[in-house]
Known about the structure:
Rossmann fold, Dihydrodipicolinate Reductase, domain 2, amino-acid biosynthesis (chains A, B), homoserine dehydrogenase activity (chains A, B), NADP binding (chains A, B), ACT-like_dom_sf (chains A, B), Asp/hSer_DH_NAD-bd (chains A, B)
Amino acid sequence: MEGKRKIRIGILGFGTVGQGVWKHIKEDRAALERRLGVKLELVRAAVSDLSKKRGVKLAKSKLTDDPYAIVDDPKIDIVCELIGGTKLARKLTLRALANGKTVVTANKALICEHGDELFTAARKEGVHYFFEASVAGGIPIIKTLREGLVANRFPLIYGILNGTSNYILTRMEREGLSFEEIVGDARDLGYVEADESLDLDGWDAAHKAVILAYLAHGKWVNLDEMLVEGIRNITARDVAYASELGYKIKLLAVIARNFNDETLSVRLHPALIKKGEIMAQVDMVFNGVSLTGDVVGTTLLVGRGAGQDATASAVISDIADAVHAIQGAPGPLISEEDEDIYRQLGEGLTLAKPKSVESAYYFRLRVRDEKGVLAKVTKAFSDAGLSVATMIQHEEPSDGSAVLLFTTHVSNEAAAAKAINKLEQLDPVIEAPFLLRIFNAPEM
Amino acid sequence: MEGKRKIRIGILGFGTVGQGVWKHIKEDRAALERRLGVKLELVRAAVSDLSKKRGVKLAKSKLTDDPYAIVDDPKIDIVCELIGGTKLARKLTLRALANGKTVVTANKALICEHGDELFTAARKEGVHYFFEASVAGGIPIIKTLREGLVANRFPLIYGILNGTSNYILTRMEREGLSFEEIVGDARDLGYVEADESLDLDGWDAAHKAVILAYLAHGKWVNLDEMLVEGIRNITARDVAYASELGYKIKLLAVIARNFNDETLSVRLHPALIKKGEIMAQVDMVFNGVSLTGDVVGTTLLVGRGAGQDATASAVISDIADAVHAIQGAPGPLISEEDEDIYRQLGEGLTLAKPKSVESAYYFRLRVRDEKGVLAKVTKAFSDAGLSVATMIQHEEPSDGSAVLLFTTHVSNEAAAAKAINKLEQLDPVIEAPFLLRIFNAPEM
């Protein structure tokens, strides 16, 4: 390897993923160096607490509690931003880009909130910003979308993008247990992020959906323009009834573009999908993404969406692309040209009105088990314009209530909201009505 | 687009895929040109018969029956070799490379047989040779293996790589029909290649397995060193009994590397896989590939493995990479450096002895329905060292024969061959004994 250029890497944040990246680069350095035609040096990692015990032990000289000792070190070529969060991470990323460094990140929240600014900064500085690890961990979804399927436009992208909620839903389904009974295990296993709302209320997957929507359609969607619902309110009974009807419940991101009226819908919510769908077999911590391209048809990718090793694998593949870019390869995304591409991709595209999005629905109601209640409920549905497809009633003798479960034929969000409103107002309805969407995957 | 470099493309072969590539580049030219930052010109296509009617109509000036008018045209930058076969295709590819052109191909047989020579030629000329479309059609498996999962070594790669046989097996399973009853439909639909043996005897998928094995392990495996079995001898009864036991039958390529003793096993045969596996849900003309990497864990890709549009999508993604390479990007594969990589990947690696490969087995026997036959058959198994796991007997009153179906516990190919040999010699066995392997996918 004499005479090979040396590429120096600094890591911001030495948590699970940072340690994984360090460990795997160290272990596989020879193979990676051969593959990339350069020498690699892990310069140092920045942490907030030097005294904390970590699985991967570093010499004192390799650890710093000053992140600027990385982003301002003129010798460092590639900065891996693995601290998470959006404030310090944004500041350090902008500084690293301004210093001419290539940045690799796994930070979906940062890209979702500040992608436009960060991409513009990278473009301005003539450097690159890589983020394969930010969506679906080890699944090379960004590369597939941007390079492998470059010949395509994408009417539909959907998938399971949050491993934690998929783990909880899978165990609820397999064991017939409630959300509360499983979520504790997920916490114990370290699957739930410190900010639990990211996993349990859907925000983590929503961030990823926003990134995919931008890459496929050139449009940044604000989280507050999106329908985002998590899995907290799903009960064991919902899962069991869905199963009876031939469905599983999965937390799905759905990115649908209508090329006729040029509207884009980006949403994140639990949905019933048919058990026979491959996506329904994506269980436990796995992620899955289905891409329907106008040329290639449907391609589906399944793999580990999180965890030290899978995420490290994605970060290292970005480091490999970064090494290529530093050696003069045209980057995959960020250049003046590409800005044009994304702008043109999104040109004339408007967000679909959430109320107009179509779906079939599943409703759960708790009612006082009294005469005439069913007539009232079904009238509420029909007044809202919803047509009932299936119904089942579970009586609960202990308190004289009953749980009613319905599915409807395809309608839209406006009608569903109207139905919820009407049902809420019915006197025998004693709990807030609960709704799930039924997602009908197109024929592959 | 003023001042943008013009990249000129010539196409050898204007069959299904060639027409698909032409059509999609023409239709999506503006988007592709924006994306690639160049202008694209489709110069001409070479065919063997100018008078043949084709779905995609070209002006006379765009068609030629002289392929050298493409490979020798100094203006052409990228040659797409889509004629298939290995003789003329090899000659034209070598000539195009020698003329300094970048070549894109979908020709798996050519790479399987002459990959080493072609890669060396490309390297020598300092040009690139791209072949994403040669394996698994629209699934970006080559890119995933070489770039997306660059941080990994691969103990196991397996999958469904031939859409035609998968179509036949899927319909046999769904409709309970025989191979003979379905294969005619597959022919009518144009799914079966002119050389039927490619699809029905497994050679097409074997070619693809050889390419994946080289990319993952740096070793060219000769077809005659491989176990290659197609699907012709599978009966409706095999499919039904497999189903009873919880399995589907799929034609699988299996590429397994043991990093302890540095042996590589590459094989292609029908196998029973558990219905619950995602791979078992890959039905009809779809392909699926499962990659287990030492860092990322298991990633699975599913998509259209063949057909005009899916293959065109892959060819166009290679054209995009070719455009990048022509503009100075380091290529993904072929350079002096990379030759080293692949040589080193394969260094010290030997092919596993076929007889040592382990598996559980399924056997089908037809016997005369007479006293003591079961004792003889089970003795043959135990003499061969095989331990029976399940057995079922179907009597056929019409001719006094019976069909015996067995599964065994895990053993190896040597013991299975010994069992076949012993069973053949038993007097009551009136048909050649038939064997299938049972593939136990590792935990994802």
